[in-house]
Amino acid sequence: MNTDLSKVRNIGISAHIDSGKTTLTERILYYTKKIHAIHEVRGKDGVGAKMDSMELEKERGITIQSAATYCSWNGTDINIIDTPGHVDFTVEVERALRVLDGAVLVLCSVGGVQSQSITVNRQMTRYNVPRIAFINKCDRTGANPEKVTAQLKDKLDLNAHMMQMPIGLENDLVGVVDLVTMKAVYFDGENGDDIRIEEIPADMAEEAADRREALLEEVSMYSEELMEALLEEDEIDYALIYDAVRKGTLALEFTPVFLGSAYKNKGVQSLLDAVEQYLPSPTDVINLALDLKNEEKEFPVTNNPEDPLIMLAFKLEDGRYGQLTYVRTYQGFLNKGDTVYNRRTGKKVKIGRLCRMHSAEMVEIDSVGSGDIVALFGVDCASGDTFTSDAISCSMTSMHIPEPVISLAVIPADNKSQINMSKALNRFTKEDPTFKTFVDHETGETIISGMGELHLEVYIERMKREYEACVEVGAPQVAYRETISQIAKFNYVHKKQTGGSGQFGRVGGFLEPIEEDYEFVDKIVGGVIPREFINSCDKGFKKSMLKGSLCGAPITGVRCTINDGAYHAVDSSDVAFQLASVGAFKEGYLKANPVIMEPIMKVAVEGPSEFQGSVMGSINQRRGMIIGSTEEGTYSVIEAEVPLSEMFGYSTTLRSLTQGKAEFTMEFSTFKAVPKSVSEELVKAYQDERKNG
Amino acid sequence: MGNDLVVSNPLRALGLDAKAEGKESMGLVMARAGLGKTAILVQFALDSMLLGNKVLHVSIGEGIDKTRNWYDDILALLTDGEKIESIPEIMKNRMIMTFKESSFSKAMFVERLEDLVKQGIYQPECLIIDGYDFENNSKESLEDFRNIMTEQGLKIIWFSAVRHRDDERVSKAGVPAPCHEVDGLFDTILLINPDGDAINLDIIKCDIGSVDPGTSLSLDPATMLLKKV
């Protein structure tokens, strides 16, 4: 590990599914000599790519969990997180971006900027992650890096410029022209190891010169020296250009674009050079922590290895070595055997073993410095926990975690499966904050919830494969919510006298709609409800919020204000006031015009324009609202908001409507009230369910 | 909020309202590049949306996010920072279609519009076409939009056109190139004109409104909202 932080890069590789990022990562590991043979994602050798370490990933050819690895290129240490492409696993992408300093946005030279690239780009912007783009698959029929670069500008609003020109395209791709050095770079040999640098082919020289001029004009905006050199028409030093591109990239004002074909072993080494040249080191980025001793005031971490340790656990994995916790250090130094504090739990933790992960393989190390990404072995914690040394008490800024929108019941086949399922669920909920589980007390069923059908499907598969838990699965259920739409008063007396000491409590006040989930306001004066029972009222209201009376969904968005009440010197108690509040809530709730809310998904359907009419029709049939459409020649994207409950089975519908030529992605957008007809159906179904036990 | 928006709107000042008039009309906003045509069109669109009309905003050469941002920016100026997406009653009255310059054709657009109308997905009353290429499209092609309006149940179409500083051609009515030969097709023609630090919205033609040609509205150059009549 480098102690010179300018020689460290923590990068993520993010893209739309099937853009070939796992193949790209595999090649990076090969060229940096971390692996000595290349295995394809869906290779005939059955080994699978190095980063797809989970069985399921190998089988499906998609990356489900981000696996961390590191490598070294020209003396620069590069930590890489390979992130999943499917939107259901976006939390993985988000967590990776939170701890990384820079990213490579991989795009397919045929598919271009697809919906998931837009989501990923939005996430990168949210976390201020400088990025470079790699247009992959230039060997494919229809490859058009020019078009993709234009899409980066138009669709992602990036100031993207090609740093290279392809020498040949599709089957004829043999190398690239480097527009900085003005040399042709060829990648010879079976695995592209032999780099041959030649003069630019004569038929490309003029175009290359024009493009270089345009490029230099653009990047001179970020460097006065370069601008001066250009004005004076001096020979331009490459270092000036690298510096200008780097400045523009770090300021998120410029996106250098590289191209090649990872599968055909073209252009990957140039991309590695670019990672080193243009992406930030840990000291180039400002990361903020929250001072827990000073009202969570934000302060920048120092990156100084001599300052007290701060590190963030961003990922947990239960592998063959036991629990692995991936951490990013932000300042300080950690040695094997050190004791650190988990600032969420307040517990002391001894760091027994420290390792670097190379996908599923582990290399033990003795210490880790600032700005690095490593794995801790056998530490009990949750994803998102901050560890520090005794000398400092802080937490890294919280991560944006979306609420689950879909749930389903899982029923274990036998006792053994029940035990294994519990172990699995315990692990998954620690690893993935968007995956949640609970037991429905009415049905006794275990419910799992997450971000989409595929998200839950993957965990069910993992339960079966990794934990040998045979489970039956119920139909997916939408995570409805209930809320109120107007202010309503309540005044409820709870009175019970059945021998022995009785129960008495009266609670008066009102419910009103708010944006936040829940708020309790105490406006009791004159002690009409004694202080010791105020908390009981809060508890009673909270209990009432767990299940609404319309469809049994949790209630959100309610402020409960109490301003009146009565008590009895002998019969009033904590329980009496809790029950009085439950009764009061029930009384007020029905008067507050309660409504059922459903998750609305932001859906993007991409496909040939000829199907646009039928795709729009299909969205409309699903109560969807079309927000807009973008048409680019023969290809179009339709953006819509559609209730999640209407999206089950949409992939099959879309396939049959478009001869399998269109695809869609969706992500949670907001909760909205369901239409009256749907509400009536849900209420009726809930009532029937309760009647039938 | 709704009232503020209606009051501040140049369209109100012109006395134009597709629904109230019940008359089909075509309007044109002209300006040099970067002088705020889209800002004016978006104000017209927002006004129409607030009155309960459905608006189809066709943006040629701009992405969907940029177009959306225009609406949010203008609405934020007119209100207390509101966003369209947070007001479902207005949001349901807007649909955006974007086309690359090279991929826009009238035939393709009509096909898309028919998809929406015939399937009952969206029946626009106001159509905004921002970025129409007046230089390379024929007068006949533009005339066809009149027929489209009748066939598809549209009440009003607003176009934007870029005028070039070095093109001095002008129609008898004072409509500059490239629209000088098609000015007869429009019922309303507005010209955005910078005047020192101010920006004027000159009414060149206003056949169905209540304002006489020659009238000029003053716009706030920072926001492109109406300053005074």
Explain what you see:
The complex is a heterodimer of chains A (693) and B (229). By secondary structure, chain A is α+β, with helices and mostly antiparallel strands. Chain A has 5 domains: 5-283, P-loop containing nucleotide triphosphate hydrolases (Rossmann fold, 3-Layer(aba) Sandwich), CATH 3.40.50; 288-396, Translation factors (Elongation Factor Tu (Ef-tu), domain 3, Beta Barrel), CATH 2.40.30; 406-479, Alpha-Beta Plaits (2-Layer Sandwich), CATH 3.30.70.870; 482-592, Ribosomal Protein S5, domain 2, CATH 3.30.230; 597-678, Alpha-Beta Plaits (2-Layer Sandwich), CATH 3.30.70. Chain A contains 16 helices and 38 strands. In chain A, the strands form 8 sheets. Chain A has an 8-stranded antiparallel β-sheet. A 7-stranded mixed β-sheet of chain A has the order 2-3-1-4-5-11-6, with helices on both faces. In chain A, a hairpin with a 5-residue loop joins strand 9 and strand 10. In chain A, helix 10 (415-431) crosses helix 11 and helix 12 crosses helix 13 (574-591). Chain A is globular and about 100 Å long. Chain A starts with 7 loop residues before the first strand and ends with a helix. With 229 residues, chain B is an alpha/beta fold. Chain B has one domain: 3-Layer(aba) Sandwich (Rossmann fold). Helices cover 32% and strands 24% of the residues of chain B. The two termini of chain B are 21 Å apart. The mean pLDDT of chain B is 84. Chains A and B meet through helix 14 and strand 36 of A and helix 5, strand 3 and helix 7 of B. Strand 36 of chain A pairs parallel with strand 3 of chain B, so a sheet runs across the interface.
